Amino acid sequence: MTLEKREDFNKENITVTSKRRIFNGFFKIDEVIVDHDCFDGGRFENVRREVIVKCDTVSILLYDPLRDELLFIRQLRVPLIEREERRSPWTIEIVAGTIDRDETPESIIIAEAEEEAGVEIKKLIPIYDYFPSTGGSPGKMYLYLGLCDLTNAGGLYGLEEESEDIEAFVISREAGFELLAKGMLDNGFTLIAMLWFQLHYRDYLGKPI
Predict the structure, then answer these.
(1) What is the reported pTM?
(2) CATH number of 57-203
(3) Structural contact between residues 100 and 109, judged by C-beta atoms closer than 8 angstroms
(4) Could you give the CA distance from residue 123 to residue 128 in angstroms, rounded to a whole number?
(5) Which residue range or ranges hold the Nudix hydrolase domain (predicted)?
(6) pLDDT in tens, 143-153
């Protein structure tokens, strides 16, 4: 099979023979069985996969271009308790939220910035839309830079009814880059946002919002 033919693979090269919900908790899991064409011209049949069904998500790196400061949040991530190499399951992240209602990613992340950090976003700049875990879930992440005033930002936030315990804190851009260099920003959306920001911060530094 030629390279051109392989690149032309699409949903017509797959037959879904079975799909059923096998777990229906906060995360939902579907068992999907497919037949699909192979690169060598053959075909696999009855391939079983488990798909985690969850909402799309949105996250934002909050930056004050006049103060040259960034805002991060710190919170407990229970799954990381299982990682023996981590001393702590509390992580440093950027603000994020779940698109679990009929609103745009932009409107949801504006609300999340207020809820998790008490910050009003003045301007949204799209960074990337991407799929964080294509082997396990079709969920999509929408990633933004948010220009804002961080003069009085920071503190404790979160919704008690959702057992959220969030610390928001502001640091200089240089300190944020140091966290990145030391490997302390080790979750996907925060890492991608900061790597992008390293390349583009000069486009916003010192400019009024």
Answers:
(1) 0.89
(2) 3.90.79.10
(3) no
(4) 16
(5) 53-198
(6) 999 999 999 99
